[in-house]
Amino acid sequence: MLKAQKARTSVPTNEAGYAYLFDLEHNAMTNALITDSTDGNKAGDYKTNGNKADDSAKENVRPARPHCYYTLRKAWQADDEIRAWVDVFLHGDTPGGNWATALQAGETVVTKREFPEKVEHLRDGQAVLIVDETSMPTAARLLELWNNPTPPLVVCVTQDAGDQSYFDTVKMRSGLDCDTESREDNHFTVLPIVTNQPNSGAELATLIDGKLGDYLTDNPLQIDKVWGALEANTVKALRPLLKDRLGLSRIDVVVKVYWRHD
Fold first, then answer.
1. What are the Cα distances from residue 129, in Å, to 42, 187, 194, 241, 256?
2. 73: buried, middle or exposed (CB in 10 Å: 19+, 13-18, 0-12)?
3. Across all residues in the chain, what is the average pLDDT?
4. What is the mean predicted confidence (pLDDT) over 205-233?
5. Which residues does residue 190 pair with via DSSP β-bridges, in sequence order?
6. Is 165 exposed, middle or buried (0-12, 13-18, 19+ CB in 10 A)?
7. Please, what's the b/e burial string for 215-228 (b: 16 or more CB within 10 A of its CB; e: otherwise)?
8. pTM of the predicted model as reported, rounded to 2 decimal places
């Protein structure tokens, strides 16, 4: 959990999909300075002496990617502060995963900027949400705040089969009755896709399109709106496939880039 230090009006407690650019380098450098100081060296050496050896040491602790976007799972008022919940999936040696694993309770995290997600088009019609591990938190919060009488179809792509349970405890708010939280009365359907490998590339786009096509053949639905967030190359290949399959306009097919496979 994160404690927000901004004015409470700047933290979106009742909106889905706020992306914050976290400063991974801030924590790596802070921890390096603390370790250096604990070892009896001068923490200021990293900043002041201009020695090439110290510059090299500083480069060694910097993460491969200095910044990374994560969306809020949710934020809420707790006493006199705002608390935020951010989910980070850990899959191997990645800058974001290493940053999250190294964080300690009470440590300060820094964000550089924020972007709200565009989900206004989902207020009516039959929607399909297409997500992977990076965008599952956005979809979970979107479902909790759902403002559409028609439950969506959620296409959930994960590397590991165990991560498919993420939506098991998510209760969708009814678009007709905001007090209804029973998934028996207002059930959203999850179409799982497990890849057993990093979720990126044009091949994944073809797989998603094929799985969705098979599902719609067996369960005839008229899809009116699409929202998704995936890896950059997957998004590039998936957008035209979805437009062709569903016959929708560009404004009704919103598929965002949430990360890039380097």
1. 51, 14, 16, 15, 11
2. middle
3. 80
4. 96
5. 154
6. exposed
7. bbeeeeeebbbbbb
8. 0.75
